[in-house]
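Typical record is below.
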Amino acid sequence: MATTIATDLSNGQIAMVAAARYTYESKSLTPQLFTRMQLEQGEKSKYIPKFGKITAADLTDGVDMTEAQQLSITGTTHSTDEAGCKVIITKKLRHQLKEDAYRAAGIVVGNGMNKKIDQDGLTLFSGLDIAIGAAGSTFSLNYLQAAVSQCLGQEEPVPEPIVCVIHPYHLHNVVGEIATPASTTVAMTMPDAIQSAALLQHFRGIEKLFATRIYATARITADTADDAYGAVFAKEAFIYLVGWGPDNWIVYKDSLRGWEIGIVADYAMVEEDGSYGRALLFDASAPVS
């Protein structure tokens, strides 16, 4: 007796499509951690002045103060450039997709734009005036402590609050120090509550070390030798200058028989003062233990 099995009638079966998933993206950090400035209508660039300092001197009772000092001012000028991305959803594709094509396209292009802006900010870390660490070296609490101390102890102290942004593989080393402190490390005196937070939350800006919020992002790009730059800095070190946007659009193109969906932003991620932070250059190889 002939038996008909499922594969014999595959041409007559409908392939069910589950709800779509989206590629998960890291949360954007630098637009929130940098100083945000806006180009107003009619402005093509932003000039940011900075006053110098003067020195006070001892005076003698009854003697006229005749020595006047001159005010000095320096400044930087920044302008913006456009960046964007788009996708095309054809009529045919829209008809065949179970997922809302417009919503899917909006999520994808929005994620792409957010990632671009954030990564433009992260690449500025290597340009800070002073770097701590070296290629191939392992990040640790001592280096973080040194970076914060240098920021606060230099002739012009770095404005507070100070934050730290590092690669998750850098953070792995710090979490290991706190979770299982050796008798020779500063972590030996860490309270249990701090150790628990390190294990449960990996900080992510929630806890502080040396009065510095710690953030980790995989959007920091390691080089071919698996070294990567993080940074300890004040928000005044960098500027997120916005001309306009991000703006999105959807336009139907008759000749394409489809919709063009895109997003564009006019902005710049720029370094304003390279002395207001410390670059952190360390190995960012994937941990195996």
Q: What stands out?
A: The longest strand covers residues 238-253. Residues 1-6, 194-203 have pLDDT under 50 and may be disordered. The domain at 27-52+70-283 is CATH 3.90.1690.10 (phage-related protein like fold). The first helix runs from residue 30 to 33.
